[in-house]
Amino acid sequence: MHTGGQDSDYCNPARCYGPPVIRERVPGFDPREFWSAELDQDRVLAMRDKYEAQAELATTSDPATRKLRLKALARRWPGSLREAELIGPTRVGERLEQARLAARAGSALGTGEAWRARGDSACAVLLWAHLHPLLADLIQFRRAEPESVSVAGLTRWVLADPTVAERWPGGERLADLVGDKLEVRCAYLWLAARAGLGLAELNGLLLARSGPWDRRASDPPWSHDEQSG
Questions:
Q1: Do 210 and 86 contact (CB within 8 A), yes or no?
Q2: Could you say which of 2, 45, 79, 149 has the lowest number of CB atoms within 10 Å?
Q3: pLDDT of 194-205, one tens digit each?
Q4: Considering the entire predicted model, what is its pTM?
Q5: In 10 A of CB 138, how many CB atoms?
Q6: pLDDT tens across 24-40, in order?
Q7: What SS3 string covers the chain?
């Protein structure tokens, strides 16, 4: 994994498309509910630990130690290796600073709107704090239900556990939001719907760049703004 992702031929969506447009993209999924909620302290501390681990990885040269740290990052925070590779060490440091600030502030930090008001780095920390558990749920579901690996199977699995269902509010509508193909992209689509973001805009905040991952023919129409195509 290289760590020079910040310099890229791909444009930053904030420059290419303008500021993200937050709006209700799926009827019944009001983004105000997402942005008005506070991020619990456990998730804040987890994000601080993640960015500290990413920063540590970037300075690790010993192959054996590096391998162990790569595995630890991937296991605890699914998606974090891709993030670190694409955003580069400078943005890792910026996000670490925001996560440490939030950890020190505790409950005084406020709602998702307060995170967003502090800029893209803080907003990315908040969004990843919600995305990592969703990605972990997908991994756990595939392991727990190898014979039912489908969106319908995921829906049943989510609704059967109140703790999991809290991370997928309105989970009975999963198929309506993400389609019938179960893949990692489902977690991104779900978060985009809850946050009222287009998929390209969400990826731009998470990964600090645009890329070929932003649009697929199978994506639901609600997930893209005309200008992000």
A1: no
A2: 2
A3: 999 999 999 999
A4: 0.89
A5: 20
A6: 999 999 999 999 999 99
A7: CCCCCCCCCCCCHHHHCCCCCCCCCCCCCCHHHHHCCECCHHHHHHHHHHHHHHHHHHCCCCHHHHHHHHHHHHHHCCCHHHHHHHHHHHHHHHHHHHHHHHHHHHHHHCEHHHHHHCCHHHHHHHHHHHHHHHHHHHHHHHHHCCCCCCHHHHHHHHHHCHHHHHHCCCHHHHHHHHCCCCCCHHHHHHHHHHHCCCHHHHHHHHHCCCCHHHCCCCCCHHHCCHHHC
